[in-house]
Amino acid sequence: MYHVVCIVGVTTGLFWARPEDAHHLIGPWTQCYTLANFWGRTWHQNFRRALQVPSRAIARDVAGAPQGSTLSRRIQWYVAFTISGLYHYAAAKTTLPSQSFAKTLTFFALMPNLLVIEDYAKSFAQRRFGCSGRHWRLFGFIWTFATLTIAGAGFVDDLVTHGLVTARPILPFSLTTIVLNLAFGRIV
Known about the structure:
The protein starts with a helix and ends in a 5-residue tail after the last helix. It folds into two domains: 1-27, no CATH class; 32-183, no CATH class. Helix content is 68%, strand content 0%. It has 188 residues and is mainly α. GO terms for molecular function: O-acyltransferase activity. The chain crosses the membrane at residues 138-156, 162-184. It is found in: Membrane. Its main location: membrane.
């Protein structure tokens, strides 16, 4: 269905003027060796531009942060996750107004802070250890998976508990469940 919408959008000029503006829904999973890459290159690429435009404008025009600076990047993270969090929260509340969805808000408030921590850690590791190569990338995949699993547990719980998303296992085991059980001291 998304591809049909893309074709119509580009053909009519209604959504996009050029085919290259109609992004894939999901980018390459091989890029998920950092949280920043997960959000910036892989997850929901069709929404990235919609969040990028106001984020860049606020960083540049309101905060006066130099383009490409660390400050600009971090402001953009906070603005984008605030907008996205409010969007997700509003969508859930519109569907079920009597529920709180506090864990959804917590997830989106937590994410830019985790990105800042990741930014500091990457900077430190590059200065101290020269961090490059397959081992660092493997560590990055583990970090990204574990962080999203633990930080996203409440958000996913909000969605599943209230029936907004149906949880259906694809495999006979869940790597996420194993990681959560290990993280919280339970044995699978």
